[in-house]
Amino acid sequence: MTIAPKAARKLTMKQRYSALTRDLDWEPSYVPAEELFPYTRFEGIKIHDWSKWEDPFRLTVDAYAKYQAEKDKRLYAVLDGFAQSQGHLSLTDASYLNAMKLFLQGVTPLEYQAHRNFAYLSRHLNGPGPRFASLCQSLDEMRHAQTEIHTLSNYNKYYSGFHDYLHMHDRVWYLSVPKSFFDDALSAGPFEFLIAIGFSFEYLLTNLLFVPFMSGASFNGDLPTMTFGFSAQSDESRHMTLGLEAIKFLLEQDEDNVPIVQHWIDKWFWRGYRVTALVAQMLDYMLPRKVMSWKEAFELYFEQQMLGGLFQDLAFYGIRPPRDVEKAIQEKDYISHQAYWILYQFSHAAAFTTSVPSDEHLDWLEEQYPDTFPTYRKLWDKERKNVENGGRHFVRGLPQLCQVCQIPMGFTEADDPFIQCQRETIFEGERYNFCSDGCKNIFDHEPVKFRQSWLPVHQIYQGNCGAADLPGVLQWYGMQPGDGGEYLGSVDHENWLAWHDMAETTGGN
Amino acid sequence: MGTLADTLTEVPPIKSIGEYDFPSRSAQELYGDDLLVHVWWKGNPWFVAAATFRAPAAMPWADFWNGLFVPYHEEDPDFDAAKGWEQFDWFLAVNREEHPVTIDPARTLSELGVTHKGVLGFRTRA
Asked: Inter-chain contact A432–B117, Cβ cutoff 8 Å?
């Protein structure tokens, strides 16, 4: 009698996950753990048991690759269809693409930087759970960088400002804002990076960054960017969960971790929040068809979801809301107006265009901001008269920059929204200027780090940016004629009108 | 929520993995005999931020006014350079404080109290 061989025993999902991830870990025997993982003690964070890290997603490499390949297939089918049918002509207006230029120049390179640092964490964190979660996020971030570049590359065939975005990211004044934010995180220790990017950026602020851009795409006929947004959405949910797990893990491991984590939350909330000023102006000023105002987005995604939900839960661990959150709440009524006013008067040195809002647009802004916008409207009335008289408000020089966030110092005092905030610190005999108490507090805690800030205005004056005059600096930035300045009459505007006239004349053929 | 002072004293210092002490990238020595001067028209939102100029510490005020200040600020249609600097009250801004400055066209920036990355403020005289 022969006995049939037993069928191979099939592992449960949980066993399979464990076999393919945590079971690949081992206790080092040739070297001490401190030598194998040299970067997880110097920040003062105490971890007693790495196995307590929960893996909320239980994803394996083969499952990860399968899901991502399916999403990529759908995205690239949309990109092909859009390109072949000249889909760019069905956008609401060529000026919409200013939002996407800012995204490609400012955000996409950060995806790549996130990829690098999560790859570092996937090697250097002691526990196999957080190492594997970091590996997945590292791959996601690389995929996001690539898919964003591919999604927006089609526009580069027809519109200005999309070329040389990586070159610009490293050099241009307004891009030093997101770049310096991420460089600050990259040069921090691994736990601070986790709180900076994994928690504060990916959890606290990600909905304020991504949802407005992707909804803006959807409302303005940009099918490829919208599809990219859907493709990234499930990854973003995973990143948010990783960020939340990271903070809970650190807080549960040792009480001494609480004040360190609290300071990182205070710091990184304000650093991230200042970067979202670019999103605020995009939502309120750059989208021809509006999605929601910055004020509404801030109330929904930050005040309701984070202050009303997350921080109630974190109170259990002794964590309070970020130190300068009250100032951010106050600024929701006017920060977008101040940020766009900055970009408007310096757009002759930018790779996007700006314009005076139409009457309809000004009315919409007044509806959204009845308490504050009427005063800003007077500025636009003055500028409109200036334009009628042959002028155009382009500043003939360079602005004062904040030493920490690097934004031109146009943000105002809490008790007077028309007086710019001036703060300073003298450290080892040198004066440093700040746009807010939030930025000053960050400097005062790490002056040796932030005194190294590469401030574009100061570097231009040192002769480190190609030339001392504007044309020379723009050449060093990699900008071409037509990239920036006024939208009306620009290359993009003229082409847009010509293409649509042609479509009308030929019946769309 | 704690105040700035008590929050900062509560916070453990940020630690680095090794020696970490690098110089400022904006130190005065990097500009030779010049200063970076921030010039702030307080209460006029037309200019969204203060201007930053590079100017010699030994530059007389009259040269600063004619060569740097006026070309920059006459971009505001409401600015009338012909009324001279006397149309404004001048001060050095330190955080929220204002320290009055009496302009003398023959005196240099340095003699007027302007220092590297200091904020020279002015407002339209009432």
From this structure: yes
